[in-house]
Amino acid sequence: MLTDMCCKVFDRVVSVYLYTVKNLAHIEAFKIVHSQRYGNITFLDKPHFALYGYQKSEWLGYKGHEKLKRRTLSKIAQDVKKETGIEWACFGFKRTDGLQRRLMMMDLETKGTPSINHMSKNVYPIEKWKNGHVLKYIEAMRLPRPTVYDPKHQSQGVTPGDISFLLWCKRNCPEDYKRVLQEFPQAEVIVFEHEYEQA
Q1: What is the CATH number of the domain that holds 160?
Q2: How much of the chain exceeds pLDDT 90, in percent?
Q3: pLDDT tens digits for range 172-186
């Protein structure tokens, strides 16, 4: 949805995807659809900032393919701006995403610049939206609906330790499930225990 907004306004858009597992087929499919729909977008994959901690603790057996450096989301944004030469970054944060996001947006509002951080050159165009607004926009613009791993939760993310994500991959995209287990081999134990309890 944010991609649609940006591509209609800017001549050049670089969409950054922070991966925990690289090259998942159902994620790549979204990129292909958007590349075909818009002629002014390119995609850039960067390691999710959580991967540093995963690698350091070998969480779920994750070792990675290269030694990762600690990166915050802010630092990743700065690195991408430097790499691409693009000054401003656009984020899809919403106040309803959680307390941390709500406080951040309220701070900008207090400073008299709602939705815009002039110091970091970041903008948050949908910060006052709720999930229902996002879905209505997607429907109105006839955009691909986001993958829903767990209908009970608003925000969806690729989290290797999340049973809903793991089961979705196993049932709907076995090649992605295999790829997840290659990176996080101990995640299979989570699925095994869940299926044993449900049996």
Answers
A1: 3.40.50
A2: 79
A3: 999 999 999 999 999
Please name the amino acid found at residue 121: K
Which residue, chain included where needed, has tokens 């984020």?
91
Q: Please tell me the distance from the alpha carbon of residue 41 to that of residue 160, in angstroms, as a whole number.
A: 28
Q: Cβ(158)–Cβ(187) under 8 Å? A: no
When divided into structural domains, the chain yields a total of 1
Model confidence, pTM: 0.90
Structure tokens at 140: 């109105």
| Distance (Å, whole) CA 66 – CA 79 | 18
Taking CA atoms, 143 is separated from 2, 4, 42, 74, 175, in Å, by 11, 8, 18, 28, 25
Domain span including residue 76: 2-198
CA proximity to 38, closest of 3, 74, 81, 73: 3
Q: Which two tokens stand for residue 92?
A: 């899809």
Residues 6+ apart with CB under 8 A from 172: 26
Measured distance CA(57)–CA(35) in Å, rounded: 36
Token match 């134990």: residue?
189
| pLDDT at 11 > cutoff 90 | yes
- For 102, residues 6+ apart whose C-beta sits below 8 A from its C-beta are 95, 96
